[in-house]
Write a structure and sequence with these properties.
13 strands; globular; 9 helices; alpha/beta; 23% strand
Length: 264
């Protein structure tokens, strides 16, 4: 499986992706908002985009669909529940569906509600898995729920799906929010040395065009939304929520963190 992470450089800090079969040159475009960059990269690599996949229905992920499809004749795939929100869908994906690219690439659809209720993450069937997580899981962060989602659903997605993936899973998010998310981690967990060291490094040399690709094991160290049992996280949270129980559940911690992150 060949992966190109394409930095759009726009104000929303989107990442677009091309996933190609090394044997046939067929490619899948994920959330190709910057259709010009996506088409140019495909042409430079000698790849043919045959499918477009949207992780969810928001315009900063679907905005390049028609331009790519008009140029390539690609089929459009997205969550089955988004059919009324994404124009021209050809395939509605459900949990467990397999998307094949060329002869050697397989991606499994995970039904991951929370950011919206019609969100899919795509998990590669490779020796080292890759998760194309859209706006569900970010580097060091979690998606918001303002645009048609729900924080309780997002928690269930994190707890029952994402946290159980192999720890060497590579994370390919829909946006570059890494530096800001690390700052939130340290605001919530000031003694998190891993987050502190990484933030100091990135403040010197962070370049989204050459963005680091984290793995789930690293996210479990630097991502507050995966550190729900951390005594430091809970202690700091109690300063903002005096009604927090003596032994809060992971769900209670997650929901309070998401509430704080909304206005941070």
């Amino acid at each position: 499986m060949l992966v190109e992470q394409i930095w759009t450089g726009n104000s929303l800090r989107n990442f677009n992706y091309l996933i190609a079969c090394p044997d046939t040159g067929e490619a899948l475009a994920i959330d190709p908002l910057d259709h010009v960059k996506c088409l140019n990269v495909a042409q430079q690599r000698g790849w043919q985009i045959t499918q477009v996949l949207n992780t969810h229905e928001h315009g900063d992920h679907t905005g390049g669909n028609q331009a790519v499809i008009q140029e390539t004749g690609a089929k459009l795939l997205a969550h089955y529940g988004a059919s009324a929100k994404i124009a021209g869908m050809d395939v509605g994906l459900r949990a467990g569906d397999i998307v094949r690219v060329g002869t050697s690439v397989e991606l499994e659809a995970l039904d991951t509600p929370g950011h919206t209720m019609s969100h899919v993450c795509m998990l590669s069937h490779t020796d080292q898995p890759g998760l194309f997580s859209g706006d569900t899981l970010f580097n060091a962060g979690a998606g918001n729920c303002h645009g048609g989602g729900h924080p309780e659903e997002l928690y269930e997605t994190f707890a029952n799906q994402l946290a159980k993936l192999p720890t060497n899973t590579k994370i390919y998010p829909g946006h570059d929010y890494l530096v800001n998310n690390l700052e939130f981690t340290l605001n919530r967990e000031p003694d998190n040395r891993d987050a502190k060291v990484l933030l100091e490094e990135l403040q010197q040399n962070h370049d989204p065009d050459e963005c680091m690709i984290t793995e789930l094991v690293q996210e479990q160290q630097i991502n507050t939304f995966l550190r729900l049992r951390s005594p430091s996280v809970i202690e700091t949270l109690r300063e903002s929520f005096t009604d927090l129980p003596d032994a809060p559940t992971p769900k209670e911690v997650f929901l309070r963190l998401r509430e704080l992150r909304n206005s941070w």
